[in-house]
Every structure is written in structure tokens, then in C-alpha cells.
Specification:
The chain is α+β, with helices and mostly antiparallel strands. Helix content is 18%, strand content 29%. Strand 2 and strand 3 form a beta hairpin.
Length: 237
């Protein structure tokens, strides 16, 4: 197996140590550090292990962290880890594209629609979208609403069939994810979920909402969780 890592610049790396992790059935674990030596023919082998110290781990983390560029967080960022990014966007208007087999979907294809305040979450390679009934920045206790869109299920997971997902989940990629979401084609209801309480249903509500400046938040349905719970679900599969 070969692994390639792009770090920029001209550097020559050599294998010097290996960390072996041992786990027990109850979840207990420990690790040992092994120097990498070479025999007379140049074949590498592991030397006897030694205890893995916190000083070594701290030094390694600092060296790895040196490759991570610092980021300035805008007010829209709600949560951030190495593989999780959550942010909110204010209510606005977007052109939306619809496909599928329903005739009413074609009638509203390409029109401009108002949108409520939205919560976007990138976890791993997956995008989740939720909504809120208020236009202010959410708190951990804010109750979430179901995102009123096709191709997004009741838990907020987006079916990215026609969406061009950005390669990076950095802070600067947030507008790219929003653009990718709204520029994709919404084709179907994802799962057994009530997207809106509008009396004419999802596609019927589209005709009444097209061209309006504000989204009527009274038609949003409860997602059954708070922002804290939405964030804590992380990269579910």
C-alpha cells in the first residue's frame, strides 16, 4: 500500500517511529512507541516498544498542527471541530430548481423563493440542513424546524445526487456549500417527513411562495430536536 500526502514545499520524509495501539474488550487501551530500524539489506523493522509519553504526543500534535492554518470565525459559525462545521444563515431569497415527475414541480422550477433562517452542518462528507423560526442567531436550546425542501430528510441529511459538494469544509467554504445546495436539483421527498404544514402541501405551497420576500414561518414543522442535539449527532451514517 502506498500513501501520498501533499504538504507543499520540497521535503524528504523518512519513517522513524511507529505507534501501536492495543485495545481490550472492555474498551481499555494503551499504546507503545517503536523506533524503526533497518537490517543489513535495508528492510525496515520495529525495535522493542517503549511507553508512549504525553510529551511525545504533545510534540507530535504541535508538529501536525503546524500544517493547519488558523481561521477567523465569523458570527455565523455555531460549532467547529476537525471534521464538523455548523453555521446559520439569515432568511433570504434563492432561485430553486426542481425535477422529478410531479407536474407542479416543473411549474415552480427556476423561480425565486423566500427562505427561513437555516442551519447548515457539514459532518465528514455529508451535508445536513435544518431551519429555525427566528431570524436571530440560534442558541443551544433553540428548537429546530424541518428544512422545507425536497431531497432533505427529516433529520436534515441532504441527498447530494446532483449537488457539487465542495472539496473542503473550511470556514471559507460555507458560501460554496450554500450555493451548491440551492443550485442543485430538488427532485423528491426524502423519507416519510412532513416538510411543511401548508394546506396545499410542498409543491402547492411553492406557487404561493414564489416571488414573496419573506418565508411564512408558521408553516415550518418541528424537527423534534434542539440545535445542541442537531450538532451532537455529528457524522452519522
Amino acid at each position: 500500500m502506498r500513501a501520498y500526502v501533499g504538504i507543499g514545499g520540497n521535503w524528504e520524509f523518512k519513517l522513524s517511529e511507529a505507534v501501536l495501539v492495543y485495545r481490550a474488550g472492555g474498551g481499555e487501551a494503551f499504546a507503545s512507541l517503536h523506533r524503526v530500524n533497518q537490517d543489513d539489506s535495508g528492510v525496515p523493522y520495529l525495535a522493542p516498544g517503549e511507553s508512549l509519553t504525553t510529551a511525545f504526543v504533545r510534540s507530535l500534535a504541535q508538529r501536525l498542527g503546524a500544517q493547519v492554518k488558523p481561521e477567523i470565525y465569523p458570527d455565523s459559525v455555531l460549532a467547529r471541530t476537525l471534521d464538523l462545521l455548523v453555521w446559520w444563515s439569515q432568511p433570504g431569497q434563492e432561485v430553486m430548481f426542481f425535477g422529478g415527475t410531479e407536474e407542479e414541480a416543473w411549474r415552480i422550477n427556476g423561480l425565486i423563493f423566500p427562505h427561513p433562517a437555516l442551519i447548515f452542518k457539514v459532518a465528514g462528507k455529508k451535508l445536513f440542513v435544518g431551519a429555525t423560526a427566528t431570524s436571530s442567531r440560534s442558541t443551544p436550546e433553540t428548537p429546530l424546524k424541518t428544512a422545507p425542501y425536497w431531497s432533505t430528510d427529516g433529520r436534515g441529511l441532504v441527498c447530494a445526487s446532483s449537488m457539487r459538494v465542495p472539496d473542503s469544509s473550511a470556514i471559507v467554504s460555507m458560501p460554496e456549500f450554500e450555493d451548491a445546495y440551492f443550485q442543485s436539483e430538488f427532485t423528491h421527498a426524502a423519507g416519510a417527513v412532513v416538510l411543511t404544514s401548508h394546506p396545499r402541501g410542498f409543491s402547492g405551497s411553492g406557487l404561493s411562495l414564489a416571488g414573496r420576500k419573506g418565508f411564512p414561518v408558521q408553516y415550518l414543522t418541528d424537527a423534534g430536536e434542539t440545535l445542541q442535539e442537531f450538532v451532537a449527532r455529528g457524522n452519522e451514517r
